[in-house]
Write a structure and sequence with these properties.
30% helix; Rossmann fold; 13 helices; two-stranded parallel sheet; 5-stranded parallel β-sheet; alpha/beta
Length: 396
């Protein structure tokens, strides 16, 4: 547990804390398991501090010095780590989902040598961050913003890079093996032909399409892609996916409608996921759904009297809106089965009906009404990033 005196000093005032650290440089700061959620720790000198298992959810650590700090298992979800100093920090099993690490550095060395092994970095903002030489083995980087990031010589063994934005990312001499690439455009990745393969990796077919086949053969060979498949790739990348993928979120009391919608979306070429069919035995329900919101393009939220009464709806709406802010694109697609959301008094519901078109499926048991609403939804799920010639028959 945290040293009560150290914790009290830090909570008192960052300036006073930094002064105390200057006067007591040899005293190890023990802040293990400290509760510092949403704390304003801008510029705090936490170098070498023991912050293992600390609760730092949403904390403001802008320009904080965390070099050599022990952050084992710390909860840094949504934390502001912009321009923070994290060199040689220990982040094993730390949760940095949705954290903003843009500009994190140590005298130009960035996060070189930082230990992110098994860290949760899904949805994290790592735009332009220097992660050269960092240990990211088994880290969850799904849907992370890695545009222009430096991952040269980084250890990516077992890392999950599905849906991560790798535009201009430098992977020169990075180590991969059992690494997951899915939903990535690899065509602009730097140094892909120099990557060192410690074992086979997963290359999703969606990555092949998004990259338009522009992936070095030496990389594909090293990842374990068979020669016969590599030879056919140029003829397989004519058209990318017509529709965005989506995750359907709903109350189990609305399962009849959810199943029908899922079946019809699949039949129309929309890659979608929903809990009963796709949850694996032993999956933790809440964790699996959180991962799916991050990995899929869109969150299709079924609103009804049943779902609005559930505690998780507000959390999922907030998670989707946060992802929209981080990635600057539309994620949340709300549809309704009744008028509950139009009359709900919760702040999130009021904001949703003011700012978003909410698809109306309240007459979903009527065939014609359902088809009209469904076709509108299909139109909205159309991948607007495609050129007209790439869609089925072009825009009508």
């Amino acid at each position: 547990m945290a040293n009560p005196e150290h914790l009290a000093k830090l909570k008192e005032d960052v300036k006073a804390w930094n002064e105390w650290r200057r006067e007591n440089p040899m005293v190890p700061a023990d802040l293990s398991r400290a509760h510092l959620s949403r704390a304003d720790l801008r510029g705090a000198n936490l170098s070498g501090a023991n912050l293992s298992r600390a609760e730092l959810f949403g904390a403001n650590l802008h320009r904080a010095n965390l070099s050599r700090a022990d952050l084992f298992g710390a909860n840094l979800r949504g934390a502001n780590l912009t321009n923070a100093k994290l060199s040689e920090a220990g982040l094993f099993e730390a949760n940095l989902s949705g954290a903003n690490l843009s500009g994190a550095e140590v005298f130009g060395a960035g996060l070189r040598g930082a230990n992110f092994s098994e860290a949760k970095l899904s949805g994290a903002n790592l735009f332009g961050v220097n992660l050269n030489g960092a240990d990211l083995s088994r880290a969850d980087l799904s849907a992370a913003d890695l545009r222009g990031a430096g991952l040269g010589r980084a250890n990516l063994n077992g890392a999950n890079l599905s849906r991560a934005d790798l535009s201009g990312t430098d992977l020169t001499r990075a180590i991969v093996g059992f690494t997951v690439f899915g939903g990535n455009d690899l065509s602009t990745v730097v140094g892909l032909d120099t990557v060192r393969h410690a074992g086979p990796s997963t290359i999703g077919i969606d990555s092949i399409f998004l990259s338009k086949g522009k992936i070095p053969e030496v990389f594909l060979h090293g990842a374990g892609v068979p020669d016969t498949l590599i030879s056919y790739l140029p003829s397989c990348v004519g058209n990318p996916f017509d529709y965005y993928s989506c995750f359907i979120s709903y109350s189990t009391k609305d399962e009849e409608f959810a199943k029908r919608l899922h079946s019809d979306l699949q039949a129309n070429g929309v890659r979608c996921w929903f809990a009963p069919e796709d949850l694996k035995i032993g999956d933790k329900f809440r964790t699996r759904i959180d991962e799916s919101i991050r990995i899929y393009d869109k969150l299709l939220l079924i609103l009804s009297e049943n779902s609005i009464a559930s505690s998780w709806v507000e959390e999922e709406v907030e998670a989707a809106l946060e992802r929209e802010r981080l990635q600057n694109r539309l994620v949340l697609f709300p549809i309704r089965l009744d008028d509950s959301v139009m009359m709900a008094t919760q702040a999130w519901a009021a904001s949703l009906r003011r700012a978003r078109h909410i698809g109306d499926f309240h007459n979903w048991k009527d065939h014609d009404a359902y088809q009209k609403a469904f076709q509108r939804l299909l139109r909205d799920l159309k991948n607007e990033d495609l050129p007209k010639s790439a869609t089925a028959g072009g825009a009508k």
